[in-house]
Batch of 2 targets.
Target 1
Amino acid sequence: VIFSRGISFLIALKATTLFLCFAYLKNLGFTLFSLPFLYYSLISIASHPSINLPILLGKTTDGSFPLFSLIIFSPYIYFVRIFSLLRRLRSGEPTYTQVHEGLYFPRVKDFTTGLPYCCFPTWYTRSPQPADIESAVKWASRQRDLNKPIFVHCAYGHGRSVAVMCALLVARGITEDWKNAEKLIKQKRPYIRMNALHRKALEEWSRHQLSAPRK
């Protein structure tokens, strides 16, 4: 049941539970002991995807978190990492999935170690902006022109990375549009699940005819 819930729901549940613990302990007179629960609750609220401010985490261009972020947002970062690990183990997905020649979904970022890396910070359950999708597609296309493999990843490889891969498949002339690209990916990776935000971003990216498909 836990894994069927979205990360947004779980973070909201965690924030509420922690705040109730804070209120309960404070009401009993344990003010000092209650403060960590208040801190963790506020961090969970600030980290909720509805806030949609990935800049708060200070993620670097190589996809890593700076020390200050690991300390301040540790309740959120490690909660999500553990949840992601358990969810991946439960799904039984392979280490990587090849969508097309040279285009892959790695299960974890470590699989891309040693390769050129480009990061577009995007909150869980949110979508890359059309401009970010365009930048990612252009970067990946340049790398692919050099005959380098492309690994597109997020936490699960089910939403944000799928949106970028859909655009990349269109831009490379592999599929006619992002909807057909999604179908192609789903054949290779059955657990993908883009939401309305991902589809809206792809529609906007398509409408502006960014990265014209190759002939």
Target 2
Amino acid sequence: MVKSLMKNTFNPNYERHAREVKHFEEEYGEDWDGTMIEYDSDFVDLPEYVVAAFGKGNLRAVLQWLSKGNLKEKVNAKWKDGGNAGLLFLAVMKKQLDMMSHLLLNGADVNILNVGDASVLSSSCLSKDISLKAVRLLLSWGAELFEKGEQVTNERKLLYGHKMSAKGNVEVANLVSSELGGRRCEIVSAPNTQDDLVGKTCVAEEYVEISDQYRVTMEFTNEVLLLDANRLKRRDRTPQDPGYYVECKNNRLTRCDFKSNEECRAFIASLGAGVGELSKVDPDAEAKAEQAAADLLAELGLEDLEGPSSSASKKNQPAALGKKKKRGGKKKGRK
């Protein structure tokens, strides 16, 4: 892909591409084009055209890409040229809450790390334009602050809070700095007159320091209560116990709300094998995804970049007479 861009000397990234090709050829030789390279990676590479589609708000193209192949691997795909940022991080930054939920419901790691070993919460909450709703959603799914691959200490968490406050994100700072702020919780004990609340779930909206209590919103009823911290325990959302659901039909996302956790779990159980997979996908999704990719690359002036259809079209073309095929003929190293 990079070598094909070498033909366009007017490309604004030409010099960077030239350096990359030179470095690559020093390691693998000048005849590397067509050589299979094994990459020692646990993650699917997030294609540039999918990132571009996300940036332009073309979620249907993103969902079409997700619909092909192993969904659980794809929801954790990383954008190599973007610091190993993943789809979840992109969804947070674009304030796409339903897409965030859809990814998490299908197995996205809420604490996936980027190239700097920082989690989604760590790398996004210091952004000046961070969405409070996006942070709340991450926290309700169990997001944590990670630095250099390690969960931050309470002291570092307070420092994060100060940094966020300095950027004007006071509400986000208060959430992240408290123990249960933004978390989905289960009520383990209740005031004498409200024993029926035990076992019910809520979201801790705000820590009230003066009374050492949390203002919580009950799930399904939206009732607002003030509860002591010792009456609550975390019950992070999971794909099996999310409290709500986001369906994908014909590459469109629709949120489903329920009257209780039991009803939600029954709905998910009824999906059977469909859980963790995009259900009821348009049968023409693959062709549409390829066309969307081609159109997007053309619009961005990157026709030479290989979209998902290019390899397929090459595969269907007869080999030139007298030309020796190199692909698959040798393997050089692991990277």
